[in-house]
Amino acid sequence: MNTGLTSEIAALTLEHITLVLIAMAIAIVLAVPAGVLITRRAAWRPWVVGFANVMQTVPSLALFGFLIPVPLIGGIGKRTAVVALVLYALLPILRNTLAGILGVDPAVRESALAMGMTGRQILWRVEVPLASRTILAGIRVATVTTIGTATIAAAIGAGGLGVFIFRGIASVDTTQILAGAMPAACMALAADGALGWIERRSKHF
Amino acid sequence: MSAVVEFRDVSYRVGGREILKQLTLQVNAGETLVLLGRSGCGKTTALKLVNGLLAPSSGAVLVDGTPTSAWDPVKLKRRIGYVIQEVGLFPHYTVAQNVGLVPQLEGWDKARITERVEILLRQVGLDPAQFAGRYPHQLSGGQRQRAGVARALAADPSVLLFDEPFGAVDPVTRLDLQQQFLALRRDLGKTAIFVTHDVREALLLASRIALLRHGEVEVVVTPKEFLRAAGSEAQSFLACLDWKMGDT
């Protein structure tokens, strides 16, 4: 393998990781609090979950395309790609946050209330710790999906390992396709393994 | 004798159904009042009105002379110990952390909490050296229930509420826990309201028994008087005592 390709793989892998990390950070910051909020506001639940659901049903290439003409968040480049990746990652995190908190034993919640814990104390000291494993599982699924979806971001000029794949498809060059797909697949496996390890290490009750 | 808890003409309605009908009842300092009744008679509802988990539709529940509606809800709950059948220990806390929770919420310092937890665990018959560091899932049903009682006693509440606490344990353990309850009452002299559908348990533990039927009190009497009570519901419950092998 020539050194030019090797260094390009390294550069695009780094770019890919950056895209994924930024998108995941934003998705977690949005989806976990939103998930917690809709455990308190049952009336908002179908709307919030519905929005996240719809976002995930839009084919990813189309979603990237749709965002190009949108002012502020749209255009060509990384910013648009991050927005699309965030929209994709929301659902698994949101749904698992909701399920994790609603899954807390009602007897535990009642006794927390009966001991004079405030709503905030119950959330932070009881519900979030007990739901953390489920929330983490949602983050894991979202991360693995995002690593894959981020390859499509190259279609709108956001860079990343997708650059190889699109170039390989255009020039019918399997080596180029593999140069993009292999690192992406390895990254997904590594993320899955690492997050799974954290998940197993967190206490299960 | 002064009433620590008083129900004044309390009704509780939900969805058009009247769960409690003009309940009037006094619980005196140091006594164990058992609320006895069938499933759905409103006894658990009555209990939840005391610590403010529910609010009466009409009438008032007074705790230490103040209506629950006038209490700060958090302060009220921390003055009252609550023990339920499912125990509700926090699965992610050790026994010591569970028992020390209310003192910790009340801002006690660490050394005082540790000391208090040890005393409480001994009082309920759990060796602190052996059990303090365990998680609830590492305990038997009876041990969990003991830890639940210790937690309820932690901040020295003025009233203890028990909602069928021994309903889910085997009969041998149950008798053990009942004896422990009597010993605790003798040692601590706490006021308690105890909900059960088990007439034997009521007779064993009660200072007085309040028999509930469809949200109304049929009779409030001592266990001795209960054995001679003439009401139809009292008769139904007493009939449970007479059943022997060979009867059909």
Structure characterization notes:
The complex is a heterodimer of chains A (205) and B (248). Chain A contains 8 helices and no strands. With 205 residues, chain A is mostly helical. With 248 residues, chain B is of the alpha/beta class. Chain B is globular, with a radius of gyration of 18 Å. Chain B has a 6-stranded mixed beta sheet with strand order 6-7-8-3-9-10, with helices on both faces. Chain B is 39% helix and 26% strand. At the A-B interface, α5 and α6 of A face α2, β6 and α4 of B.
List the helices and strands and how they pair.
The complex is a heterodimer of chains A (205) and B (248).
Chain A: H1 3-40, H2 45-57, H3 60-67, H4 78-102, H5 106-114, H6 119-149, H7 162-170, H8 174-201
Helix pairs in contact in A: 1-4, 1-6, 1-8, 2-4, 3-4, 4-6, 5-6, 6-8, 7-8
Chain B: E1 3-14, E2 17-28, E3 32-36, H1 43-50, E4 58-63, E5 66-67, H2 73-79, E6 80-84, H3 95-99, H4 101-105, H5 110-123, H6 128-131, H7 141-153, E7 159-163, H8 171-188, E8 191-196, H9 199-205, E9 208-213, E10 216-221, H10 223-226, H11 232-242
Parallel strand pairs in B: 3-8, 3-9, 6-7, 7-8
Antiparallel strand pairs in B: 1-2, 1-4, 4-5, 9-10
What keywords describe this structure?
heterodimer; A: 205 residues; mainly alpha; 79% helix; B: 248 residues; alpha/beta; 6-stranded mixed beta sheet; 4-stranded antiparallel beta sheet
Quick structural overview:
The complex is a heterodimer of chains A (about 200) and B (about 250). Chain A is mainly α.
DSSP strand tally of chain A: 0
Shape field of chain A: elongated
Separation of the first and last Cα atoms of chain A: 50 Å
Number of helices of chain A: 8
User: What is the H/E order of chain B?
Assistant: EEEHEEHEHHHHHEHEHEEHH
Radius of gyration of chain A: 20 Å
* Order of strands across the main sheet of chain B: 6-7-8-3-9-10
Measure the end-to-end span of chain B.
Answer: 45 Å
Low-confidence stretches of chain A: none
Helix tally of chain B?
Answer: 11
Helix content of chain A: over 70%
- How would a textbook summarize the main sheet of chain B? 6 strands, mixed
